[in-house]
Amino acid sequence: MFPAPFDYHRPDTLDEALSLLGQYGGDARVLAGGQSLIPAMRFRLARPAVLVDINALGDLAYLRETDGVLAIGALARDAALESSSLIESSYPLLFDTGAVIADPVVRQTGTVVGSLCHNDPSGDWGVTALACRAQIVVRGKGGTRTVPIDDFLVDSFTTAVGQGEMAIEVRFPSPKPRTSGAYQKIERKVGDFATSCAAAQVTLGDDGTVAEIGIAIGAAGPTAVRVAGAESALRGSKPSKDAIRAAADAARALADPVADTRGSVEFKKDMAGVLVSRALLAAFERLGVGGLK
Amino acid sequence: MKVSVTVNGTKYEREVEPRTLLAYFLREALGLTGTHVGCDTSSCGVCVVVLDGERAVKSCTMLAVMADGHQITTVEGLVQGGALHPLQQAFWDQHGLQCGFCTPGMLMTSSILLKQNPNPSEAEIREGLSGNLCRCTGYQNIVKAVQQAAGAMQPQPAEPVAS
């Protein structure tokens, strides 16, 4: 099915884009890669009256690390992460995630920021952004604000981006020394929505205890969700089988999935725990901490 | 609204509704039916075309108006001077198709795969084509065809200089 009719604008500058978004308010949607939005419009799950296509804003296609922050612009494609040696060497969780988004063709067009803004309950980037404690830069006519990912993901397909605003960048803190992470996902086939997914990022202190920890799960509720109980099970203690088991239990208890053709509620809750455990094991292994299985 | 797009080197101008999808624009407005439409939901990859020579895109999930001012290559654009593209020749030689429905998408995705990675391993080919579905061949011969094409497209070594 074709999308319902809409008006189409392709501004040449960010100011022009913001002006159009301000003018049309809630009737307008930003079109970046369109890999989620266009299918949603075809299924009539989304019916924006106006599309503001930002594909001419090439200035927003950046991926750069400065002052301890990796900034990814609103037009950076998923594929840009896969081919970045910086991401491959220094951001293992992002590299893992980038390799399992949709399929390789879709990744050439889909964007990281667009995926976060779409906020699909089964989306991958929200999960990873929670584990990394990312921030989103949102700009409107009134100015620019920075929103922590926990506040950004409001509800299914709903974010903190207000009318007349646009998310222009996502910021991932550069990993400190002795930091690693991993992403785990179960999908029926390449390109399917996740049956279950989990992200973990760990920083070890000088004494070998967990100094910082981020754990989140997806396809387990209205949005990606931080598993605070799993984080506190590990924070401040040495990596251990018991702590990983406690983190997995916390994820299993928190997961609130929907039964569908991909699995029952019971199965998906169990997988949330399994994937948190696998993500932690992989992250610790990358830090040279083994013997935890 | 008016769309001006260069497809396989020929410039076309057409009036379209903004909601027209690129795959349908190519097939119905331009008569280029080599680009197929399969699942229509960006899952199967039979509609893949190349944008500006650098990116494979599923044309069922791109608006025709987004292509305004851009260059599109479809399967019809692979033949150069009447000769099959090395990928087309390799799909022929290796029996990389049976019904042929997925072939245009396989060829276009492979063309970008080989541009980005001229000497891919079998695993890299399988990964690179994982967004393109074939329901006939089991992929074995498709992978072989891409391997043959990769070999055929390698720059030929220079003639040794007699000393």
What would you note in describing this structure?
The complex is a heterodimer of chains A (293) and B (163). With 293 residues, chain A is α+β, with helices and mostly antiparallel strands. Chain A has three domains: 7-53, Uridine Diphospho-n-acetylenolpyruvylglucosamine Reductase, domain 2 (2-Layer Sandwich), CATH 3.30.43.10; 58-173, Uridine Diphospho-n-acetylenolpyruvylglucosamine Reductase, domain 3, CATH 3.30.465; 179-286, Enolase-like, domain 1, CATH 3.30.390.50. Chain A is built from twelve helices and 14 strands. In chain A, the strands form four sheets. Chain A has a five-stranded antiparallel sheet with strand order 4-5-10-6-7. In chain A, strands 11-12-13-14 form a four-stranded antiparallel sheet, with helices on both faces. In chain A, strands 1-3-2 form a three-stranded parallel sheet, covered by helices on one side. Chain A is globular. Chain A starts with 6 loop residues before the first strand and ends in a 7-residue tail after the last helix. The relative contact order of chain A is 0.12. In chain B, strands 2-1-5-3-4 form a five-stranded mixed sheet, with helices on one face. The mean pLDDT of chain B is 95. Chain B has 163 residues and is an alpha+beta fold. Chain B folds into two domains: 2-77, Beta-grasp domain (Ubiquitin-like (UB roll)); 86-152, DNA polymerase, domain 1, CATH 1.10.150.120. At the A-B interface, helix 2 and helix 6 of A face strand 4 and helix 3 of B.
